[in-house]
Amino acid sequence: MDIDRETGALVLRADSLMQKRRSFIATPRAVVVAPAAPAAPPGPAAEPAPGGNEDDLPVLTEVVPPEATPAAMPPTALEEALAHRLAGELAQAIGDRLEAELPALVDASFARIEGDLRRDLRALAENALKDFLARRPQLPAHEETPARD
């Protein structure tokens, strides 16, 4: 029985669409609206009528209440919505740029830090050696000691 109901609903919907098309083509100024068909579960896409051009038939796919249109929104709500959208896009752009460039920046920073650390450690070691040598009395010249027999 479910198949019969689905088939019946589909046939009613197809009849309704064909009636709309006939009235649209026959009377360009006035459009006769057929009663809405009962809601049917989504089925396979309908085949276009042979010999007809489906592009000339407007089809309403979404009902937008007038209060949801930008013209009906108060300016502050529109500004807030725009600011929220722009903030999201900006955050995404910054995140993408950071993701792309951050590894190279970190590598360059580590290379600079490594160079600075090597230079500072070398200078520290040289200064420590100079201080050590300055505090010690002059070492006597190396004399050869006689070999013991």
Write up this protein.
This protein is 58% helix and 0% strand. It has 2 helices and no strands. The chain is rod-shaped and about 125 Å long. It starts with a helix and ends in a 14-residue tail after the last helix.
> Low-confidence segments, ≥5 residues, pLDDT <50?
none
Q: What's the total count of β strands?
A: 0
What is the makeup of the main sheet?
A: none
Per DSSP, what share of the residues sits in E-state strands of 2 or more residues? under 5%
Distance between the termini: 124 Å
Q: Label the overall shape.
A: rod-shaped
Structural class: mainly alpha
State the helical fraction: 55-70%
Radius of gyration (Å): 43 Å
Order of helices and strands: HH
Sequence-ordered SSE layout with sheet pairings:
Elements: H1 2-26, H2 75-135
Question: What's this model, at a glance?
Answer:
The chain is mainly α and 149 residues long.
